[in-house]
């Protein structure tokens, strides 16, 4: 038998839940902090490259990749990836390293818990523009810790695939997290953003 909740009961639940939800992400006017928050809370991204393969050569080509900017609670803002040159998008990057990475809180429980459609501006998402490059041996240790801490399966991937660590050198950050159109911030603003502390999702990155 169904239970008919009174209007007052519904409002009580809304007020009990809303404070935690409202504090789950940084304020929408703190663009760089929102971008860093999303980058740290997303474990994968859609990477768009310029295809080097017929019959779509020269056209945008999007693919999914696991990413990490650091172990949980210790993000750097740098999106690291574990790649092989056998992969079709990586072959695109060898011809043209420019790319974009899209990440959304729709990948977490946040948007679903708030009833936000993934395309809604309130379901915060970012696009990072730049180029993808292989990291040097010193930075590879940082990338390895960042990725393997959040994607432990990677440690068992076939060793004969020539895996290497890469990162995106960010040139522009695009943020859509509220009404009024997309916002941007510079890489300098992005990397200097202060950690945002709140209950709920991963909330610190330094």
TrEMBL record:
Transmembrane segments: none annotated. Its main location: secreted. InterPro entries: CREG, CREG_beta-barrel, Split_barrel_FMN-bd. GO terms for cellular component: cytoplasm; endomembrane system; extracellular space. Residues 26-191 form the CREG-like beta-barrel domain. Residues 1-24 form the signal peptide. Keywords: Glycoprotein, Secreted, Signal. It is found in: Secreted. Pfam families: CREG_beta-barrel (PF13883). Belongs to the CREG family. This is Cellular repressor of E1A-stimulated genes 1.
